[in-house]
Amino acid sequence: MARSHPAPVRRGARHGRHGRLGRSEVVRPPLPPLDGRLDRFEITVGSAVEFLRGAWAELRDVRFEMAAMPTHDRGDGIPLWRVDHLSQRVTLYRVPIERLLPKGHDDGLHRRMAIESAVFHAAAEYIGREPWELGPDGAGH
């Protein structure tokens, strides 16, 4: 009489030949692209500041910071930035810069232009110049 052997137990695809779970890959999957509003704000501010620091020595030691909203009121409206000469700091306020755009101009391109404009205006205020002087063609640069 022939002996019947039990059929081998088949493991799921997750198990290796020793019955353990498979190991994860050494390299993780790529991170999702930076595409949030806060990410875009930080990248836009960073690239504008990098340009300005490269062109104007007066801005090389200035700290550019970002905050959501101002904690003070100037009396003439909501400020978009704050310049502090004593601590060599410029603070840009993200929410007013991004949200106070006129209707029809609140798309990605106009939002980026508003952010860059705020950076240039704040930097110009810090060094006592006009914003258009900070561009590549202004004041000998």
UniProtKB/TrEMBL annotation:
Residues 1-29 are annotated as: Disordered. This is Metallopeptidase family protein. Residues 11-21 have a biased composition (Basic residues). SUPFAM superfamilies: Metalloproteases ('zincins'), catalytic domain (SSF55486).
